[in-house]
Amino acid sequence: MSIREESRNAVREILEKANLRAGDLFVVGCSSSEVMGESIGTNTSTEIADELYAGIQEALKESGVFLAAQCCEHLNRALVVERAAMEKYDLVQVNAIPQPNHAGGAFATVAYRRMEDPVVVEDLKAKAEAGIDIGGTLIGMHIKPVVVPLRISVDRIGEARIICARRRPKYVGGARAVYDEMLM
Description:
Blueprint: H1 3-17, E1 25-30, H2 32-35, H3 46-63, E2 66-70, E3 79-82, H4 83-88, E4 93-94, H5 106-114, E5 118-121, E6 130-134, E7 147-150, E8 156-157, E9 160-167
Helix pairs in contact: 1-3, 3-5
């Protein structure tokens, strides 16, 4: 199976299991180096990032969910989003253009090049509903509390381990409370 197919299938499964709806934010952190079996940040590949982006965006477009592509730590894990997402979620734009080998990473660079009206935002204010971490890039800070791991049938894309996460509403009310199973 190709990287494009693996990423598309993984994201489709996350969208279904996390019950995402049109207009929700989905965060992707990605190391193209890890996908190729190398250590994070050592072998950046926009070709691999193109394949990942194509598969992920295909799944997200089908559902109307916004992509938030996380930049690397050199840009403080800023994110590339569509201007419409920035406006909807009242996010703060910053002035940076991701670069594959300098600051931003290959996936964020590809997202910036391929989105219709891309902007870079400082953070998501913990407003994402779910996401996928491809290769250990740390995305949890972008997802609404409470972040919980999400197990899917895919555990790797290429050679990179993936960790999927979704949010669930906080439990309130203590021992007497009754909870909605669909939100757990």
